[in-house]
Write a structure and sequence with these properties.
The chain is of the alpha+beta class. It has helices at about 25-30, 45-50, 95-105, 120-130, 220-230, 250-265, and strands spanning about 5, 40, 50-60, 60-65, 75-80, 85-90, 110, 135, 150-155, 160, 165-170, 180, 190-195, 200, 205-210, 210, 215-220, 240, 245-250. It is built from six helices and 19 strands. Helix 5 (about 220-230) packs antiparallel against helix 6 (about 250-265).
């Protein structure tokens, strides 16, 4: 069996191949970067020898991360609900401990991902839980480096994953940049899982917006307004970002409004 190589810089897993891919198109893109030492690869088996999956409470949700940190260093989120648990975003490592822990929470019904930087080992996660569906926005189809029948490309501006969960296309960081709105979260006041489409900054009263985070390329004002307009119809008290403890835990909708105003004031029209 041929290995599925994983880029060590962005964490994306590729289709099986006899040799390491020549380059990682995701890292070649101006939103990311190539490892300073040159393109480097690993495999899931190698990752399991040096890292482990960690699962722990993240405010009202459950976080899924990798220790020591790997690639971009994000953590995923487990949305636990009677209608079926959802894994929001993804990480490169999956191991037996993670599968056992999540099975103890009732398993997974589906995966949804905000943008290509977090596609990572999504196919491995899907297969570990019975080939569950993976929801990605069709505008980012070209960035899928390991195609699989489990991947469902949704189109348009919104897609329902059940009566209380909606995927919302915001664009911005990527054309298909997506957030997940969970109406039942925070005691029914609503939760927004934002990845870094809306980036929760260290001053957790605010979020911000970028075309490229590592290369510090800002988004233009119209793109930021579009993000704000996309989430405006939804009620949400909290925002969960892409890293441990990067969350706005109260007054999140007001935080988005003042963050948009501050951002546009800084960059200009």
């Amino acid at each position: 069996m041929m290995p599925n190589y994983i880029c060590t810089t962005c964490g994306t897993q590729y289709a099986d191949s006899a040799r390491e891919p020549g380059q990682c198109p995701i890292c070649q893109d101006e939103r990311q970067f190539v490892n300073w030492a040159g393109q480097q690869w690993t495999t899931l088996e190698q990752l399991r020898r040096q890292h482990r999956t960690i699962i722990k409470p993240e405010s009202e949700l459950t976080g899924v991360g990798v220790e020591p940190s790997f690639a971009i260093g994000q953590r995923a989120l487990l949305v636990r609900r009677p209608a079926g648990n959802i894994l929001w975003d993804c990480v490169s490592l999956i191991d037996d401990g993670a599968v056992r822990a999540i099975e103890g929470f009732g398993g997974l019904a589906m995966i949804a991902i905000s943008h290509p930087h977090y596609y990572t080992s999504m196919v491995e996660w899907s297969r570990a839980f019975g080939n569950i569906p993976i929801y990605l926005h069709a505008a980012d189809r070209r960035w899928v480096m390991r195609p699989d029948p489990a991947v469902i490309f949704w189109e348009g501006e919104r897609s329902s994953l059940g009566e209380d969960v909606t995927l919302v296309r915001c664009g911005g960081h990527f054309s298909g940049g997506t957030v997940l709105h969970w109406a039942g979260g925070c005691g029914g006041r609503g939760v927004l899982l934002a990845g870094d489409i809306l980036q929760v900054v260290p001053d957790r009263r605010y979020v911000s917006f970028m075309y490229s985070y590592p290369n510090l390329i800002p988004l233009p004002a119209p793109a930021v307004r579009r993000i704000a307009q996309s989430v405006e119809p939804f009620a949400f008290e909290q925002i969960y970002g892409a890293w441990w403890d990067r969350n706005v835990v109260d007054g999140a909708k007001a935080a988005v409004a003042r963050s948009v105003e501050r951002y546009i004031r800084a960059v200009g029209e």
